[in-house]
Design goal:
alpha/beta; Rossmann fold; 12 helices; elongated
């Protein structure tokens, strides 16, 4: 794997498939027949790692719209490449930000358009015209409830920045022409690629309580040291040399700069680790995308003049 090859060590194991996830899978299967289109919400920072293969399996041939949420936290050029990639795979895709509302008008329009074949078919058979019905699916903490609340203009779905908080299905009316079915977040039984689990841990889609935080933070520091050392320098007032001292020393540098110390001046490693993860997830380390878009998407952008 990419992460393993770079460091020479095994990627930290991140796994989480509690009982309610199996229940969620059955819930989704039982309600797919009620909707015309599925909106798959991905995190723009990890479009590949947050794409649950179970969702693709469950949805089958039903129209699917890919929405890259939290695009304000992701590398803009990489997001464009990912949108191009999904479109090359025959899927409608667009970047959105559920907090600011960016891209949501386009999302509603695309969802309505994808559902039109089904709703027109029903009318042709004598049924009364009705709003398009869409199911919103995605992994925990990808922003489903925030998206629905923004679209509805009120706190219709419970929101909490904690994986797996949305438990029960909810129908939310969006204007006259669209109804959304919010479903609990669903993770898959096992990460076939350990790098996917690692990157989901980076962004907080997997609870910090179920993996080795120290090992994950070490990988995160290695990634930033290689890709964006200047951001570490700017955020934590480090020297260029300090950013390449290795993950353990780098965490100590950061902890001391930010006052993460125990009595006697020793490093409070746990506090420094939490600080780093909070800075990343809050966008204070800049816009980052951990999953690189395929090269084919890069070529498509060039062909399109982007």
């Amino acid at each position: 794997m990419e992460e393993q090859a770079r460091s020479g060590a095994a990627v930290p194991t991140v796994q989480w498939f509690p009982g309610h996830m199996a229940k969620t899978k059955r819930l989704i299967q039982g309600h797919l027949k009620l909707v015309d289109v599925v909106v798959e919400l991905l995190d723009a920072r990890v479009p590949l790692s947050s794409a649950n293969p179970l969702i693709r399996e469950l949805v089958g041939e039903k129209p699917r719209l890919v929405a890259l949420n939290k695009s304000d936290l992701a590398d803009e050029a990489q997001t464009k490449r990912w949108v191009a990639y999904f479109r090359s795979e025959g899927l409608s895709a667009l970047p959105i930000d559920s907090l600011s509302g960016a891209g949501l008008k386009g999302l509603v329009q695309k969802a309505e358009a994808l559902a039109r074949a089904k709703t027109h078919k029903l009318v042709a058979k004598g049924a009364k015209p009705r709003a398009a019905r869409a199911m919103v699916l995605g992994i925990p903490n990808v922003g489903k409830s925030s998206l629905i609340n923004r679209l509805a203009g009120a706190a219709k779905a419970k929101v909490e920045n904690r994986p797996g908080v949305t438990r029960d299905k909810q129908w939310i009316r969006i204007g006259k022409n669209l109804e959304l079915l919010d479903m609990p977040g669903i993770l898959w039984p096992k990460f076939e690629d350990p790098t996917a689990g690692l990157r989901l841990a980076f962004i907080g889609s997997v609870s910090d309580e179920v993996y080795d935080v120290e090992a994950v933070v070490k990988r995160l520091l290695e990634w930033f040291s290689e890709r964006h050392p200047g951001r570490l320098m700017e955020r934590y007032r480090l020297t260029a040399e300090e950013t390449h001292d290795g993950a353990e020393a780098l965490l100590e540098h950061i902890g001391k700069r930010r006052g993460c110390l125990l009595k006697g001046g020793a490093l409070d490693a746990e506090k420094a680790q939490r600080l780093l993860l909070a800075d990343l997830r809050g966008g204070r380390l800049g816009r980052v995308t951990f999953d690189d878009a395929p090269e084919t998407a890069t070529m498509m952008n060039r062909d399109d003049g982007e």
